[in-house]
Amino acid sequence: MSGQNHQQDSYDTFCDRFENRASTSETNFSPNIFADFEPQNTTDGSYRGTMAKIKATELQYQEVFDKKLAEANSNLKRDRVRVSIKQTGNSLQLRATLPLKPDDYHRSGKSKKQYDLSLGIPANLEGLKTAIEESYELGKLIARHTFVWNEKYLGIKFRANIQEQQKIKTIGELLEKFEKTYYQTRQKNITSQNTFANYISVIKRNFSLTDLATKSNFESVINQTKGNKKNELLAVSSVFIKTFNLGFTLDIKRDKVTPKYREIPDDDKIIHSYQLFAKFALNRKNTNISDATETWEMWRWVYGMLATFGLRPRELFVKPDINWWISEQNIDSTWKVDKNTKTGYREVIPFVPEWIELFNLKNPQALTILDKKISKITSVQNINWMRRDISRWFRKVGVEFQPYDLRHACAIRSHLQGIPIKAAADNLGHTVDEHTKTYQRWFGIENRKKAFGEVIGQKSLIELQKNQILALKMENERLRLEVEKLKLGSNPTLLR
Predict the structure, then answer these.
(1) Which of 190, 201, 209, 483 has the most CB atoms around its CB within 10 Å?
(2) How remote is the C-alpha of 492 from its chain's centroid?
(3) Apex CA 231: angle with CA 230 and CA 232, to 5°?
(4) Helix (H, G, I), strand (E, B), or coil: what is residue 235?
(5) CA dihedral over 267, 269, 275, 280, signed as positive or negative
(6) End-to-end CA distance of the chain
């Protein structure tokens, strides 16, 4: 009896020791696993490029997670805890040798068997914390020989009926936890925050937050839409479902969408439209609308920058390097796009250098207003408001095209200028494929005529030059023969 008591004391001491380990786990869960991570710059703002960047971020997360999982198992083994943690898909399981389950058997007649216990723990860093705690708890039961099969350990299949009885959460209830859950496996920066803000906006605009988060409810709403709206809803809903691991996928295919025709402005129209800002301010100078009288110069500057550099509007507002822009060392008048934008850092060369002076793009007054506006930015939402304000100002002063049309115009202009496609695509911040497929889609008949005219004109000039060269060669040959004849005439002995 005393031996049994001694054995129990040993178990208790042992269990207390690694129970303390569980509460003070040496596995370091850094709050920012992306601190030193920079996903490869895809230079592609398309859906494919964005997904490549997301994939790189997911791989980085998985790499860190695998390292932490291995570290946790190493600590469990060191502490002689007879439990290990394994990942199966999107879940974590506890592996241990345990007494046989009820109604189970061992082929060799043994009373124990190795089991993988599914406790509904997600395969992320927060879940790994839970798995470590559960491993030590299970290890304690095994060491004390007090383990019994109960509802907790009998697994997902056993608990399925109970879970089905539980109330399925509404979309609104999940939305409250969306941000925290979403960023458990993603890097949080300006770009990802903008993407997430769009997800929230799409969900709130299109779904009833009181509806249950079921497959049928998602599909019902999405199937009521068509085109780009349907595709956006499908993409956002899929992210939402995957984030919460809701256990289903949507049986909906994306719509094939033909882009709406764009009338891209030519250079004359761009220059004319620039002048509309000053005319607007002149006509409104006696009003009390401060927004119209105090900031129009900045919005005119924004217009000029978009026209000259082909920038995305956001690339003017995310940490603009104004000091570099006005620096004397900036001899090529390049604009530096911040790394936290859609396709990362790049230095942009002006497509039309003479417009920098024509549009007064280094105007101190406009840059001062910009600097004040930027200093008030406290969130991604502020940047989105400024981006939308560009379109509002275009309409206000009477510009007949959209801000993004100026970017398309630069893509078209680059071709007419003879700039190699790779150089133009890099300058705009997208791939060659995106450049030719999307941005030159609106090349138009007039630009084609211009391009053909220039090529034919160049060919005509080359042919003319070739003919002139041939005529000069023939003239040189004639003169050479004349010289030979003269030499022979002046020396009679050469004729004998």
Answers:
(1) 190
(2) 89
(3) 90
(4) helix
(5) negative
(6) 145
Tokens representing residue 30 in the block? 């850094």
Host H or E run for residue 92: strand 91-99
Q: What is the pLDDT of residues 229-277, one digit of tens each?
A: 999 999 999 999 998 888 889 999 999 887 677 788 889 999 999 999 9
Question: What is the C-alpha to C-alpha distance for residues 387 and 381, in angstroms, rounded to an integer?
Answer: 10
- The overall average pLDDT reported for the chain is 80
Q: Which residue is associated with the tokens 């509007």?
A: 313
pLDDT tens, residue by residue, 18-52:
455 555 455 555 445 545 545 555 545 555 666 66
Query: Which string of DSSP letters, residue by residue, matches 324-366?
Result: HHH-TT-TT--EEEPTTSTT--EEEPPSSTHHHHHTTTT-HHH
Confidence of residue 458 (pLDDT cuts 50, 70, 90): low
C-alpha–C-alpha distance, residues 393 and 117, integer Å: 60
- List pLDDT tens digits, range 331-357: 999 999 998 887 889 999 999 999 999
* Residues identified as active-site: 312, 342, 407, 430, 439
Is the CA virtual torsion 198, 200, 201, 207 positive or negative? positive
Lowest mean pLDDT among 176-180, 255-259, 284-288, 406-410: 284-288
As a dihedral over the C-alpha atoms of residue 446, residue 447, residue 451, residue 456, rounded to 10 degrees, the angle is 0
Q: Which of 262, 263, 282, 264 has the alpha carbon at shortest distance from 397?
A: 282
- Gyration radius of the chain over CA positions: 35
